[in-house]
Amino acid sequence: PTYASLAASKLGASTAIISKVGEDFPEDYVELLTNNGVDLAGLKVALGEQTTSFLIEYLNGERNMVLKARAPPIEPDDVPLDLSSKAILVAPIAEEVSREVMARLRRRTEFLCLDPQGFVRRFAEDGRVSLKPWFDRFLLSLTDVLKASWREYEHIVGSGDLRYSLRKLHNLGVGVVIITLGEEGSVLSLRGELYVIPSYQVEQVAEPTGAGDAYMGAFLAEYVRGKDPVWCACVGTAAASFVVEGFGPSRFGSREEVLERAEIVQDMVVKL
What pLDDT does 240 receive? Predict the structure, then answer.
């Protein structure tokens, strides 16, 4: 939620977070978000609990993760009754979002977007994270925009013909599918139209954590304005390029800087 909301806010979108943390959640993080205009009325502190946290290690381009603590799940009653939003991004990281919560969110937004990483993860007794097959027709049928990494995507639809698997998702009602490829950019599918969105080449990558979340925050900030999805993907790519240049949620770029990079990316887009 941090990376997505801050990236969207930098592009002028009004953002809010629904999440649950433990008593160990630092006040500095609350100040960071509120000072950047993020509405935290939906952030709940669970007494006697810890915030969900991971140990993350990058080796040869692969990310190894160990779950260290898990906060209580988000309950249907955690969704405000008066919630109304142009777009909602659902981004579980440790299976903390239920079908009922997704159904409630579906009724409160025009565009429901899903990053299913938390559904695709399996957690061993020692907390080590691996990927598992996941294909929930009900949740996918609620989804307007789906974003997943390539490895996650393969665990959702299985390996095989890309166009065939994308057609399966579009037939369920998913209008936009985004597959992120790390330094190679991303693939955007719009009901049969396939685009390769290259990455913006930065001089040095400091840390890739949060890049995909920033991508989606920026994508949606433009998408809710009615912008072309290909352009939105270029803006998402540009926002992600700023995030990887710093450690943690420290660098996002101004709206002008992000759009300048997005125009460079747009000139290199390839339609397949």
Answer: 96
